[in-house]
What we know:
Elements: E1 10-13, H1 15-18, H2 23-32, E2 37-41, H3 42-56, H4 62-72, E3 75-77, H5 81-95, H6 101-120, E4 123-125, E5 139-140, H7 142-150
Parallel strand pairs: 1-2, 1-4, 2-3, 4-5
Helix pairs in contact: 5-6
Amino acid sequence: xxxxxxxxxxxxxxxxxxxxxxxxxxxxxxxxxxxxxxxxxxxxxxxxxxxxxxxxxxxxxxxxxxxxxxxxxxxxxxxxxxxxxxxxxxxxxxxxxxxxxxxxxxxxxxxxxxxxxxxxxxxxxxxxxxxxxxxxxxxxxxxxxxxxxxxxx
Length: 153
């Protein structure tokens, strides 16, 4: 079953997309123009906070990450019960394909993101790989994002 198009389209950003400093201003322009909604799942926000804290040590301030999100005009997407239950759907879909508990331990973060994208119908922007991404109808990678942007309504 095809997922209906969203107006304006919604994009979920994986952590690797947040490191792409050239992408953020372009996405912000589209958000301000009303052509795109950009969401950062709460787990991605938590991972970004951890990365910044690790990188800057005692000079770290959570306000820096919060300000980045505000300045970019992105929205934090809270984790819902429906999304939590979607993790089971994603896991059931890939479990029969030869994946096991070790696969879960290696990819649980990305399985979470796939579940959020699956439940919301939003496009997931991620460069990661794995069988769990095969479930998604809407996914783009860094090398595809510019052409995806050009095709926005």
